[in-house]
Amino acid sequence: MTATATASNLRGLWLLLAAAALVVVAALSVAIGTRDVGLNDIVSALSGRVGTIGEAAVAMRIPRTLLALLAGAALGLSGAIMQGVTRNPLADPGILGVNMGASLAVVVGIAWFDMASAYAYIFTAILGAGAAAVFVYAIGSMGRGGATPLKLALAGAATSIAFSSLVIAVVLPRADIAGGIRAWQIGGVGGATFERIGPVLPFLAAGFVLALFSARRLNALALGDELAAGLGENVAVARALAAFAAILLCGATTAVCGPIGFLGLVVPHLCRLLTGSDHRWLLPFSALGGAGLLVVADIAGRILARPAELDVGIVTALVGAPVFIWIVRRQRVRDL
């Protein structure tokens, strides 16, 4: 057996283990909360019964867990794509300002245009995310050297801060919507229902398909634009398709959950320690890793603040920053 085949088999084993771990954490998410439930309550709730308090509690946790799985997978995948497209190890939807662009668009739609429908939220968030991505890339491309990783990170950070200030400016005069928007701005999966998840599924599905379809192209882009073009790759099309997938995933997730930070930054680096830089493996690993990490963060938020809860956006911010610093300082993270 060749070394390549052995490495592929090992990655396949890790992928199966990651999927199995995801099933376990999903089961824990259904079982753990502010109210203890038994196995009978879980089985009854899964069959559609909500006659007891325990069954009702489990029935509420099922869509919440599903939303955490979908949102985590989308953010982990979009982070890996953004790092591949920009060849920037610090790229993620939060640092590049994409999440805040989606947030600003949604807040403006609510405050100025009385936006209320789920599809309006989603389309507006995706347009805001796309506009923010184009704006950051344009700013980062100015000057000598083009869009370098450092310039993109600085442009994204400055844009994110500016958009955050604009969100506050839009919300301040509107006391009637301020409370709801502030809660949404933290980022969370609480209060999820199947009716709330349904409209976002087609957008996430399209984003997932486009992302996985872009894996080989991202491998070519990692070699540099000139070499990728020499291998027959249309660099502009490859970068645009991958970026569009990331924007779809970020925008749709932000519309339903609010901006959740650090997940898209930390997860690809963790997964890269197992898979290397081959995006054919990195992307599915990032999706599974993001889903698992967000569910674990949601479980932690329920436990740490009992009988209240911490929104998952707070937990990912508290955990993500030190974990990322530890990865950079203690591990040999592969270059992009």
From TrEMBL:
It is found in: Cell membrane. GO terms for cellular component: plasma membrane. The keyword Transmembrane helix applies. CDD domains: TM_ABC_iron-siderophores_like (cd06550). One of its GO terms (molecular function) is transmembrane transporter activity. GO terms for biological process: siderophore-iron import into cell. PANTHER family: FE(3+) DICITRATE TRANSPORT SYSTEM PERMEASE PROTEIN FECC-RELATED (PTHR30472:SF1), FERRIC ENTEROBACTIN TRANSPORT SYSTEM PERMEASE PROTEIN (PTHR30472). Gene3D superfamilies: ABC transporter involved in vitamin B12 uptake, BtuC. This is Iron complex transport system permease protein. It comes from Shinella fusca. The chain crosses the membrane at residues 12-32, 65-82, 94-113, 119-140, 152-172, 197-215, 236-261, 281-300, 312-329. The keyword Transport applies. InterPro entries: ABC_BtuC-like, ABC_transptr_permease_BtuC. It is a multi-pass membrane protein. Keywords: Cell membrane, Membrane, Transmembrane, Transmembrane helix, Transport. The lineage of its organism: Bacteria, Pseudomonadati, Pseudomonadota, Alphaproteobacteria, Hyphomicrobiales. Belongs to the binding-protein-dependent transport system permease family. FecCD subfamily. Pfam families: FecCD. It comes from the Bacteria.
